[in-house]
Amino acid sequence: MKKIILSVSLMMIVGISSSELIGQCNSDNLSNACIPKLSGGFNFLKSYKIDGENGGKDKVEYSYVFTKGTQYMINICAEGQATDGIVVTLFDSGRNKVATSKINGQFISAIAYPCNATGIYYIQYTFDGSASHCGGSALGFKR
Amino acid sequence: MTFGKDRVISNFVNDKKMAMRILLVLLLAGILASCGSGKKPDEQAFLNTLDSAKNQGATIDEAVISSILQQIPSPLEISVLLKESGTKYNSSILNTPDNLPKYNNNYKKALNLGIYGTDLGYTNIYEQNQDGIKYLTSIKSLADGLNIGQFFDIETIGRLATNSKNLDSLLLITTQNFNDINSYLQAQSRANLSVLLLTGGWIEAMQITCQVASKNPQNKELQEKVGEQKIILENIMLLLSFYKDTDENMASLLKDLEELKSAYDKINIVYTYKESTMEIVNGVAEIKDNSTTTIQITEQDVNNIKTITESIRTKITS
């Protein structure tokens, strides 16, 4: 009986631990970490979780109404200093590409977008050679 | 011998009972651990105390609602615009915190929580700390009434509000609080309250903008700001439409907004797309937006929108 209890206990401990470790993306922490990284003068608006579910999702998308005359900043945070292959691309309501954080093969951690046309914009995060498929992002604005 | 045998049997039975108990405890622990997202007592209390604003629309797609809700811009953007355009602080255009006792059902509480949230942002931007604290007190009371008061650390916010050097922290913490409330309500399948909160916040921002724009007809940027709210209005009406068959208050609010929409039907927003250009400056991708929008709105349109907005807001705040 003791052996059965021991086996069940071990199985449960291993099961619980592995379910927490495997595929765990702490995008909440990463998005919160991104907020203070907004450049000076930008007021915080939103934080976004980027959870690619270990490659199960090829993109994560949010939307926001940007207004003419306002400058927006969107940054990306991943484990470590770099963006871990996470790219943010901005599309207008007609799905025309307006901005991207991958320029000439270089991954940039923030984009500054002085909006000249009010409308709904799609903020799309994709994974380009990302190891973790996990990150966070913050949106700020200034006039 | 018999005694010895009985003791062996008794020990075996006791061992077995003990083993079963331990196994049961472990299994229960496992179940509890695997259900780590279980409801906290305050969450359960919140669910139990919902009244008229209770969501009965089982067919409502909450993912769709959530995706529309997140688009609604922060009223803080309007306050910053007003301050930077040189408009003076005017507390008389806000909803007085003294109206708090009038809000005695969840529908009114949620709407006016949004309204006071916008007013708090306005007082913060203008660094009117004493007024801000009064709004904060009313906000905390409404939030408590909706069982979401745990998101406001009134002591910390109050302390930040007493020193203008803390403005950035104050704006950050209040924005985060409202974002957290919206996420929480949506996670609790009570997005209807989130819709009301954001609608209230938007109506107050609209009302403030219209008041200032009508007094400054030479300020074309403010007129355009009123005009471009057409996009937000359409989103808010879409959100309310999801609840019109299950919540008579929300249906009535939607009807009121239809009148506002008819005023907005005269306003045209012309969008012209032109590819943008980018360059990297100090590690930031700086975009040059070459697209434009032209907002066709007249002074008469602004006054008309102002009148309708005031009428809707009076219904909510009185």
SSE diagram, text form:
The complex is a heterodimer of chains A (143) and B (318).
Chain A (H helix, E strand, L loop, with lengths): L1 H20 L5 H8 L8 E9 L7 E8 L4 E7 L8 E6 L5 E4 L1 E2 L2 E2 L2 E5 L4 E9 L6 E9 L1
Antiparallel strand pairs in A: 1-10, 2-9, 3-8, 3-10, 4-5, 4-9, 6-7
Chain B lengths: L1 H33 L6 H9 L12 H8 L6 H9 L21 H20 L3 H17 L8 H8 L5 H21 L3 H25 L4 H22 L6 H17 L3 E5 L4 E5 L2 E5 L3 E5 L2 H19 L1
Antiparallel strand pairs in B: 1-4, 2-3
Helix pairs in contact in B: 3-9, 4-5, 5-6, 5-8, 5-9, 6-7, 8-9, 9-10, 9-12, 10-11, 11-12
The span between the termini of chain A is 70 Å
Which spans of chain B of ≥5 residues are poorly predicted at pLDDT below 50? 1-13, 25-58
Trace the largest sheet of chain A across and list its strands. 1-10-3-8
Give the C-alpha Rg of chain A: 19 Å
What is the terminal separation of chain B in angstroms?
A: 88 Å
Q: What number of structural domains do the residues of chain A give? A: 1
List low-confidence stretches of chain A: 12-21
Number of domain units of chain B: 1
Q: What is the radius of gyration of chain B computed over CA atoms, rounded to a whole number of angstroms?
A: 26 Å
Descriptive key words:
heterodimer; A: 143 residues; alpha+beta; Jelly Rolls; four-stranded antiparallel beta sheet; 10 strands; B: 318 residues; mainly alpha; two-stranded antiparallel ribbon; two-stranded antiparallel sheet; 12 helices; 65% helix; globular; disordered N terminus
